């Protein structure tokens, strides 16, 4: 592989006009496609295989035109102090609002609080429920604006009016987070390279790659039902890895220049060596993202595949466009150790000093030397530290956010609190029980028996009479729990109703299904939990096999996987401590603690695993390269850090900056994802890869690179460290033999 990539790098450097033209043409084509494609709405949301989804599908069949899975809004009214909602003036204002809401084109029905008995016992709070034809993610902006305007009109009459429900659900906006991430990346790159030109190359290529990827997603969104949320993950991951991959190749190019090679040769060498690591690092990220399809949630699958496609584009750009741009940059990209005009004039070095060890070892060398001298202490400190950070993960509670997790400044949260005040906390999460008595002899008796059994369960406040369809074979029953939607008690009630339904099925052949947004959230959480172990086995297993091919070792990939699991558990512990326990919640802007988003563990595993393996591949391939060319194991560790620590550190800081920018979002879900990914990258890059990995390799010595002979013969030789390039050019030192491992 190294030889092929070497030729590709030289070709791209030499034919840079042609390569640049191809990528610019692709960017233009993708942009034109995105601009001319029909505007895509939000992707339809479904969770195949869950009971809640089966109930929604059944309702569509038995109650046609009711839009059972459509969006709902609760317009909550509170009378001024000393007044009641039943006072004539207040009642007239509410009825005007109901009439105004009924005129919407996407509205199915609006309930009048006075006819539906939706007024609190003390008469101070009432609500009108609005049902829509489409889901909250598909509801157009005009309908949302009309909903907000109607509430504003009621406020003018002196009422307190807030809006809850999923009708105002919107794609989370993170403001200037991407800009902040790019700005931090630019600063880090300038410090790393000491040159604006060298620093600008990774940024330019990453932006081109993300532009092509996101434009392609936008262009295909309508045809493939990708929706407007699909590009979010693609942009975040594509930007981060695009900068990192270009960073590694440019750094290796400068190192090759330092050894006295011509620029075209240096570009070929950089792509042949660092480019090989980029290919395998990119493959691990692609495996992790495509593996999200194991969960069988279509929206998550589409997000993973779209992001994986953007990563693949980032790899191709790093292998071709980066060497082409290096050709354009010419002498403006200087050898390692020389500084551009930005940070001072270049220091001249004679040929003897150029080949010798630097007079003052860099920070990476000093740190690696310290670790290999005290590997046991560093290993214990790293493992114990991450273990301590992981302790809160034992108390992990999973759920999906509802309006109760919103900031108190939002109308959704204020509506949630008003409903809890007037009707009880469970009113914010009603359960819809669907009774399918088509195969039963007496459907009416089944409906009554189901209602009676549910009334006998704990945590039930209200059970409405069954509402049958026109055929009389299916009915819906609304159940109001006593506890809030995200509580464990409500989850137990859902399971209790389903257990009761099993008994009813045995006695009457009727199916009892529980659905509604609360039940759907519970089912999604359980589906994600059940998929976590298979997903881990698939992703870690495939990546383990891939790393065996890369490193030609059993213990190094095993150590990489175990280190990753340790860093993920520590990151989950940090998430629990902040978002569930409330530690440092004020600093992070967390206004409401509660269960951790159920998607968080599997999402963190998928994204962080791919990125963690990036650092593993880039750092350890330099160690293996030194080892196979004759260095002692501990010296190879130091050599790997001398060449790679600075670059890996810069890459990790850039990645953390991109993710940390999302902490400033007003959406608790986005804030949690940003914090979780940023802290996971910190733990994995600086504790696992920078401390635990060199300590373990120092302790293992030559055993780290052991591979059974039969397996060595069976595995393909991908030559990541560029052994073939050295042999072909006669660069091997006469007194240094290649080590067979």
Please outline the helices and strands.
Elements: H1 2-14, H2 16-36, H3 51-62, E1 72-78, H4 88-102, E2 107-110, E3 125-132, H5 141-156, E4 160-165, H6 177-193, H7 196-224, H8 230-258, H9 263-290, H10 298-329, H11 351-355, H12 363-373, H13 375-390, E5 398-399, H14 411-423, E6 431-436, H15 443-455, E7 460-463, E8 467-468, E9 474-481, H16 488-508, E10 511-515, H17 517-551, H18 555-580, H19 585-588, E11 596-597, H20 600-628, H21 633-660, H22 668-700, H23 709-714, H24 723-729
Parallel strand pairs: 5-11
Antiparallel strand pairs: 1-3, 1-4, 2-3, 6-9, 6-10, 7-9, 8-9
Structure description:
By secondary structure, the protein is an alpha+beta fold. It contains 24 helices and 11 strands. The strands form 3 sheets. Strands 6, 7, 8, 9 and 10 form a 5-stranded antiparallel beta sheet that branches. A 4-stranded antiparallel beta sheet has the order 2-3-1-4. Strands 5-11 form a two-stranded parallel ribbon. The longest helix is centred in the last third of the chain and has 35 residues, at 517-551. The two termini are 19 Å apart. The model is unreliable at 342-358 and 733-741 (pLDDT under 50).
């Amino acid at each position: 592989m190294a030889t092929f990539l070497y030729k590709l790098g030289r070709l791209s450097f030499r034919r840079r006009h042609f390569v640049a033209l191809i990528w610019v043409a692709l960017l233009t084509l993708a942009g034109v496609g995105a601009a001319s494609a029909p505007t895509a709405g939000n992707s339809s949301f479904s969770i195949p295989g869950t009971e809640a989804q089966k109930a929604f599908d059944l309702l569509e069949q038995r109650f046609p035109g009711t839009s059972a899975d459509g969006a709902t809004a609760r317009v909550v009214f509170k009378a001024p102090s000393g007044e009641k909602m039943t006072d004539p003036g207040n009642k007239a204002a509410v009825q005007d609002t109901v009439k105004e809401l009924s005129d919407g084109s996407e509205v199915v029905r609006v309930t009048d609080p006075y006819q539906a008995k939706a007024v609190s016992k003390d008469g101070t709070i009432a609500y009108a429920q609005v049902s829509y034809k489409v889901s909250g993610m598909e509801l157009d902006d005009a309908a949302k604006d009309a909903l907000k305007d109607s509430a504003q009109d009621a406020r003018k009459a002196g009422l307190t009016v807030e809006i809850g429900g999923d009708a105002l659900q919107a794609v989370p906006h993170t403001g200037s987070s991407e800009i902040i991430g790019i700005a931090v990346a630019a600063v880090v790159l300038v410090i790393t390279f000491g040159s604006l030109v060298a620093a600008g190359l990774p940024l330019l290529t990453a932006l081109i790659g993300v532009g092509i990827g996101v434009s392609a997603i936008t262009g295909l969104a309508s045809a493939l039902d990708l929706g407007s949320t699909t590009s979010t993950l693609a942009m975040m991951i594509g930007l981060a890895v695009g900068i990192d991959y270009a960073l590694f190749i440019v750094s290796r190019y400068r190192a090759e220049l330092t050894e006295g090679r011509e620029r075209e040769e240096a570009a070929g060498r950089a792509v042949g060596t660092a480019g090989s690591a980029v290919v395998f690092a990119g493959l691990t990220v692609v495996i992790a993202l495509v593996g999200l399809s194991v969960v069988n949630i279509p929206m998550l699958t589409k997000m993973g595949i779209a992001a994986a496609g953007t990563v693949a584009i980032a790899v191709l750009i790093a292998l071709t466009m980066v060497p082409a741009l290096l050709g354009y940059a010419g002498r403006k990209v200087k050898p390692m150790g020389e500084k551009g005009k930005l940070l001072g004039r270049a220091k001249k070095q004679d040929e003897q000093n150029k080949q010798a060890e630097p007079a003052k070892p860099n920070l990476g060398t000093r740190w690696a030397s310290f670790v290999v001298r005290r590997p046991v202490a560093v290993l214990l400190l790293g493992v114990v530290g991450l273990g301590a950070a992981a302790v809160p993960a034992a108390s992990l509670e999973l759920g999906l956010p509802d309006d109760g997790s919103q900031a108190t400044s939002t109308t959704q949260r204020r509506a949630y609190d008003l409903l809890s005040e007037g009707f009880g906390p469970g009113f914010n999460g009603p359960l819809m029980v669907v009774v399918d008595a088509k195969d039963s002899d007496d459907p009416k008796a089944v409906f009554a028996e189901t209602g009676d059994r549910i009334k006998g369960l704990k945590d039930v406040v209200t059970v409405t009479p069954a509402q049958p369809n026109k055929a009389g074979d299916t009915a819906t029953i609304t159940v109001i729990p006593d506890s809030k939607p995200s509580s464990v008690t409500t989850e137990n009630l859902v399971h209790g109703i389903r257990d009761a339904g099993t008994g009813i099925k045995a006695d009457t052949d009727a199916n009892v299904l529980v659905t509604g947004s609360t039940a759907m959230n519970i089912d999604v959480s359980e589906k994600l939990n059940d998929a976590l172990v298979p997903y881990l086995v698939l992703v870690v297993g495939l990546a383990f096999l891939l790393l065996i091919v890369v490193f030609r070792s059993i213990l190094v990939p095993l150590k990489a996987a175990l280190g990753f699991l340790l860093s993920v558990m520590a990151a989950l512990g940090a998430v629990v401590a902040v978002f569930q326990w409330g530690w440092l919640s004020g600093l992070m802007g967390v206004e409401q603690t509660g269960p951790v988003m159920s998607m968080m563990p599997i999402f963190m595993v998928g994204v962080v695993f791919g990125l963690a393996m990036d650092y593993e591949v880039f750092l350890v391939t330099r160690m293996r390269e030194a080892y196979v060319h004759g260095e002692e194991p501990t010296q190879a560790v130091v050599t790997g850090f001398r060449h790679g620590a600075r670059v890996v550190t810069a890459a990790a800081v850039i990645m953390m900056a991109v993710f940390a920018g999302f902490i400033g979002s007003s959406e608790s879900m986005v804030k949690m994802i940003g914090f979780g990914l940023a802290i996971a990258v910190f733990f994995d890059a600086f504790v696992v890869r920078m401390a635990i990995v060199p300590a373990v390799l120092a302790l293992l010595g030559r055993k780290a690179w052991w591979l059974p002979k039969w397996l060595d013969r069976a595995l393909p030789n991908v030559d990541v460290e560029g052994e073939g390039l050295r042999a072909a050019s006669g660069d091997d030192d006469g007194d240094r033999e290649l080590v067979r491992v």
